[in-house]
Amino acid sequence: MRLLTTTALAATLLVSPTATATTTASTSTSTSTSASTSTSTSTSTSTERIPVILVHGRNAGPGVWGTATAALTARGIPADRIFAWSYDTSRSTNEVLAGQLSAYVDQVLRQTSATQVDLVAHSLGSLPTRWYVKYGNGSRTVRTWVSLAGPNHGTGLAWFCALWDQGCKDMTPNSYVVGRLNAAPETPSPVRYFTFWSDCDEQISPPTSTPLTGAVNTKTAACLKHNDLLTDPAVLDGVTAALTGT
To answer: pLDDT tens, 181-222?
Structure first.
């Protein structure tokens, strides 16, 4: 893993541009649109497709999902069923963000007349989405949850920004949020869980923090850095397969 100085680490930590089944993949890229700006031609296939909500990581925004959105649409997911949630990554996972995500999911369900959504999260985004699934309405409204390079069991590097950033504090190993999320079962039914992770992830320490008991956990074949999982074609192929069942 590439070493960073404390100063550089504090500035760049976890910035986006986390018996278990295990598979192998390669590299990836990603992007998406929001519920308020998503446009596309409506078709019968589109209206039947479960909406996909993309959730970015720390100090990022919906723009990181551009490549992923293109990849998902190219693989048959209609553009008007792809949304990106934008949020303040310095806020509390359980006290603030999970509730805001719940409201956003409700908005997407109303807009699309769907009854469920699929969630795809990168890095820190894995925590509020997972909290919503486990302790919010997500057990009812979420069909599939996907985590790319998520700090699902915490990351030691988060200590470098935990003093002033609640999002970082939530990512520290054995934090209140991480502890509650990993209380058995880690992956409560009926939601389907998938994770993608890399041995070369320089932000999730250790990289094995991402896999979850009860999820389909995919270790990339290629040596991918943290943000590479947003754009790697093999990872995006795996995400599409998770969302479509193919």
So the answer is: 999 999 999 999 999 999 999 999 999 999 999 999 999 999
181: domain CATH number is: 3.40.50.1820
In a domain, 240, yes or no: yes
Q: What percent of the chain clears pLDDT 70, i.e. is strictly above it? A: 80
- Domain around 232: 6-38+45-244
In terms of pTM, does the model score above 0.70? yes
Q: Rounded CA gap, 107 and 35, in Å? A: 8
Q: Is residue 1, in this structure, part of any structural domain at all?
A: no
Q: How many domains does the chain have?
A: 1
